Amino acid sequence: MTEVARKWWKEGVGYQIYPKSFCDSNGDGIGDLQGIISKLDYLAHLGINIIWLCPVYQSPMDDNGYDVSDYYQIAKEFGSIEDFKILLNEAKKRGIKIVMDLVLNHTSDEHPWFVEARQSVDSPYRDYYIWQKGKTDEWGNETEPTNWASFFTPSCWEKDEQTNEYYMHIFSRKMPDLNWANDKMRESLYEMVKWWLELGIDGFRVDAVAHLDRDFSFTDSHMPSHGKYKEDWSKFSNMPLVHTYLKELNEKMLSHYDIFTVGEVGGGADVNEALKYAAYDSKELNMVFTFDHCWANNGYDSLNETWTNRVNLYDLKQVFKKWQLGLQNRAWNPLYWLNHDHPRVMSQYGEATHYHKESGKMLATSLLMMWGTPFIYNGEEIGMTNADHLTFDDYHDVSTIEKIKKLLGEGHPTELIERYIKVTSRDNARTPMQWDQTENGGFTTGTPWMKVNPNYQTINVASQLEDEDSLFNHYRRLIELRRFSDYKDIIVYGDYQLVGEHHPNVYAYVRTYGDRRLLIVSNFFEKPTTICLPDLTAKQMVISNYKDSSMHLPCLELRAYESIVFELV
After folding, report:
1. Number of Cβ atoms within 10 Å of the Cβ of 60
2. DSSP alpha helix (H) spans, 279-434
3. For residue range 481-505, what is the model confidence (pLDDT) as tens digits?
4. Of these residues, 207, 232, 358, 380, which one is catalytic?
């Protein structure tokens, strides 16, 4: 084991808040900053000490705040800059740090820069964005500059009639991409970053950070695929100049503050790519979020007739092993099951009908005992589930709506599209927080902006606060183990070793720090199973999701979703 530098953000536990869905203080149906302030005692009771706050900047809300129209103002739906200062101050009183979502890849098309840029090809802001003239196809018709697809829409190009040119947008049409090759644009963003740091925030989660560079040759993709537009993310993902820009940002701004940064690089980055962003000597970011653990479920790709909805545990274990060992002693690792862009983990890898408490605790233990800084998504600590929307009209997410249009246009059966969207839509994580059994789950006294999941009657904060054996209280105990117990150094800084690698039902690993070891064993399925781990002897049980778990190592019989942490001899 190699000793690494100790940092507050390595020893912390993060909690992601989706502001629009967290808590509404004024009855307009939309969560807000005062609502978050009212729940700080709850978060302190849970034990977290870092809040990752999704965007609260001024925005027309095409993508719920990720389309920023003014980086220096708070969206009126969420409150004011004075409310934000109160949140910052009240959080610090409770030992909680605030990390802001930082959107650097694009702005809203209502941002003053873009409003000016689209007025004329000679605008001083024109080059703040990425513009190209259209092409002529073999039949003499005008077409987009390239055949590149967008993450949200068929094409990543939108024609602007005012100047007869196309602007690039790899997300929504209302989110034009910034041109990071423009020095003045970068300096303007750096000044904005400094403004927030001087205000007193504690770091940034950098949105879509892998996309700051582009293939400026603007050549068509020759990726083999159906359809006119090619989902060739290599044209604008993880390209070389991203690292030049991030080093510059770090040198000019980030390195001058005691903060931490985590970048969203998505599912396209491997370990070596991640190390370019976040190795200890990279001088770019402190860690990066990757997504490949989110898709080890046969049901996630449900646009077919053979949906089995079963966890591919072997693949999931390989993903964990890849990142735990690949970054160990080289970079720091963030841990999370989901965020605002993913299905609820209870619906993805848990079992919410008969084993809600057991499977939820198992998932919590499996994640929070690994190496890295954990991030809990709001509602995860009570086991909230997917949205369960009944019709296409219930969906609000811009990318989901575009996906429905695309799939209907391709002629897929409506029932298959409904099933696919139910599993994959980003709205699954965005239903309002379920605080109690009152109307709308206690989220609002008004009409919620999105339907509250009807299971709020049985899954809510109030009932779990009263139950000592609840999923919420299991999260509390796990967080206490990570932050304050005699096991802190093992959990936070210990080495990781996957054991029982080929067992089809059990995820097991050992954490080692000096001469102390912890064994974490989790049955990911309802069916009872047995695992034998020769040469391992339990000294004592640290935590379990059953009250009467066995200590009979080396061969251990595990019940449905049973999960146990042992200290080893």
Report:
1. 15
2. 313-327, 345-348, 356-368, 398-409, 414-424
3. 999 999 999 999 999 999 999 999 9
4. 207
Enter the pTM of the model.
0.97
**One-letter amino acid for residue 457 of the chain:** Q
Is the preceding omega at residue 19 within 30 degrees of 0, hence cis? no
Catalytic residue among 63, 264, 380, 562: 264
Q: In 10 A of CB 305, how many CB atoms?
A: 7
In sequence order, the β-bridge partners of residue 249 are none
User: Cβ distance 555 to 530 under 8 Å?
Assistant: yes
Nearest of 312, 366, 397, 352 to residue 521 by alpha carbon? 366
- Known active-site residue 264: yes
b/e map of 128-142 (b: 16 or more CB within 10 Å)? Answer: bbbbeeeeeeeeeee
Beta bridge partners of 206: 102, 263
Q: What is the mean pLDDT of residues 132-145?
A: 94
Bridge partners for 521 per DSSP: 508, 564
The rounded percent of the chain whose pLDDT value lies above 90 is 94
User: Are 549 and 541 within 8 A, CB to CB?
Assistant: yes
DSSP lists the bridge partners of residue 205 as 101, 262
Structure tokens at 270: 């491997």
d(CA 443, CA 455): 14
Give the C-alpha separation, 160 to 219, whole Å: 21
The band of 107, judged by pLDDT with boundaries at 50, 70 and 90, is very high
Q: Which of 277, 67, 223 is nearest to 152 (CA)?
A: 67
Type of residue at 207: D
Q: Could you tell me the two tokens for 258?
A: 């005691």
**Calpha distance 147→156 (Å, rounded):** 8
Helix (H) or strand (E) holding 567: strand 563-568
Torsion 193-196-200-206 (CA) sign: negative
Q: What sign has the CA pseudo-torsion 240, 241, 245, 247?
A: positive
Q: What phi, psi does 366 have (nearest 5°)?
A: -60, -40
144, burial (CB in 10 Å: exposed 0-12, middle 13-18, buried 19+):
buried
Q: Which of 247, 268, 269 is nearest to 180 (CA)?
A: 247
Structure confidence by residue, pLDDT tens digits, 510-560: 999 999 999 999 999 999 999 999 999 999 999 999 999 988 899 999 999
Residue 188's closest CA among 265, 122, 123, 129? Answer: 129
Cα R_g (the chain), whole angstroms: 24
Q: What is the mean pLDDT of residues 383-406?
A: 95
In angstroms, what CA-CA distances link 158 with 117, 121, 150, 249, 484?
14, 16, 11, 29, 52
Alpha-carbon distance of 312 to 299, in angstroms, equals 10
Among candidate residues 311, 390, 374, the one with its CA nearest the CA of residue 345: 311
CB 178 within 8 A of CB 103: no
